[in-house]
UniProtKB/TrEMBL annotation:
Name recorded for this polypeptide: CGNR zinc finger domain-containing protein
Taxon lineage: Bacteria, Bacillati, Actinomycetota, Actinomycetes, Kitasatosporales
SUPFAM superfamilies: Jann2411-like (SSF160904)
Pfam families, per the entry: ABATE, zf-CGNR
Limits of the Zinc finger CGNR domain: 150-191
Cited PANTHER family: BLL6575 PROTEIN (PTHR35525:SF3)
Organism of origin: Streptomyces tendae
InterPro entries per the UniProt record, alphabetical: ABATE, ABATE_dom_sf, Znf_CGNR
Length: 196
């Protein structure tokens, strides 16, 4: 696998505090879900399915479904409900429709060492995975505490939205290691340039 591709685990991020927000984050800094392989890696990395779950049956139609849910969820998360706004109403209707699908059914089975591990009762269907993501979006949008914790990253040109659960709710960046580090490096360079 080529370094820097969407399926590279260093490129896939799961640090927004909600899986539906992690899905939205797959558009930054470039499209991360640009192939079925990338989508399979994201589904597994996000925890939607247990590690090792077969996803060979995923096809390009899955990409369309995930991209659509991502766009509708982003529209709802990044805007406030406005009466009679047709785009908001359509996005909400679509997310609610997708949330009707039952999420993949888990079961506990003995692992190699005898400890119980989670596995799915069968290969997950796209609708079931989209249903789990849509339900997470519905829960986020209807939870006043979580909704109040939504923040836009303060990093330069970073559109990522995350849930701030930090003490005092003073988190500024989607990731301290990525955007926070960029800010610290930029600050250091500005100071060094002034000192010359």
């Amino acid at each position: 696998m080529a370094l820097g591709t969407a399926t590279d685990p260093y490129e896939l991020r799961f640090d927004t505090g909600r899986i539906c927000l992690d899905l939205i984050a797959t558009t930054h800094p470039a499209e991360r879900l640009d192939s079925v392989d990338a989508l399979r890696a994201w589904i597994t990395g996000s925890g939607l399915v247990p590690p090792g779950t077969p996803l060979a049956h995923a096809d390009p139609s899955w990409l369309s479904g995930f991209h659509e849910l991502r766009a509708e969820t982003a529209r709802l998360v990044r805007s406030r409900p406005v009466p009679r706004n047709p785009r908001h109403a359509l996005a909400l209707a679509r997310v609610n429709e997708l949330a009707l699908a039952a999420p993949p059914a888990p079961r506990a089975v003995p692992g190699e060492d005898g400890a119980l591990v989670r596995e799915l009762t069968g290969p997950p269907r796209c609708a079931a995975l989209l249903g789990a993501l849509a339900r997470d979006a519905v829960e986020l949008l209807t939870d006043p505490v979580a909704r109040a914790g939504l923040r836009q990253c303060a990093g330069d040109d970073c559109p990522i939205v995350y849930v701030d659960t930090s003490r005092g709710r003073r988190r500024r960046w989607c990731s301290s290691e990525i955007c926070g580090n960029r800010e610290r490096v930029a600050r250091h360079r500005r100071r060094a340039a002034l000192a010359r």
